[in-house]
Design goal:
disordered N terminus; about 25% strand; alpha+beta; about 190 residues; three-stranded mixed sheet
């Protein structure tokens, strides 16, 4: 079987028309805050991170944190007797809180190298948290776009809310499991100098 340009274009157009939502593109905003770390030896650096690092919802101090929040809105149209979603807008705000050494130039060369390795491993771990948030936003947008039409718009709104909550719950579990498996990044090389 051979494909002509016209057949290929027709096939691609048909695929595009029957696969809604596969091109989710949530709006993303990333914010980074740094907290200052002091100390010219390993024990004082550790103490500074424990004192100044971000606190989790459990009240414990952490070396860094990545928080993400997803907002969504959708439009629907009612064509009696059906109601269907016509447009979805999803955005995600990602907020990093990371350590920054105030006196990096005063550290010994070996300690400076250990600090750099620690900081790089820590940021890689936090980026994985960011990636989970982005995946949640993309999945949410796709699932909302692919919701079946409903007999009543109130039913559609209930379904959309349930889908959104299920996606958020899934990624909340994924985040907790990720930190459990990596021991909050220690298993990935996050070791204080």
């Amino acid at each position: 079987m051979s494909f002509t340009p016209a057949k290929t274009f027709s096939t691609l157009l048909l695929l595009w028309m029957i696969t809604p939502g596969v091109f989710a593109d949530p709006q993303m905003n990333i914010h980074t805050d740094f907290y200052w770390v002091t100390g010219l030896d390993a024990p004082s650096i550790r103490q500074s991170i424990q004192q100044r690092g971000p606190r989790g919802v459990d009240g414990k101090p952490y070396h860094a944190s990545t928080q993400w929040e997803i907002d969504w809105a959708y439009r629907w149209i009612e064509s009696r007797p059906w109601c269907r979603i016509t447009d979805v807008n999803v955005s995600i705000d990602i907020h990093y809180s990371l350590p920054k050494h105030r006196d990096l130039d005063k550290l010994s060369t070996p300690l400076k190298e250990k600090w750099a390795a620690y900081r790089d491993a820590l940021f890689r771990h936090e980026q994985q948290h960011k990636d989970h948030g982005i995946a949640a936003a993309v999945e949410l947008e796709n699932k909302l776009l692919m919701l079946d039409q409903q007999y009543r718009c109130s039913e559609l709104e209930l379904k959309a809310s349930a889908v959104a909550q299920a996606v958020l719950d899934k990624y909340d579990r994924l985040e907790k499991e990720f930190d459990r498996k990596t021991n909050h990044g220690i298993n990935q090389g996050i070791v204080l100098p």
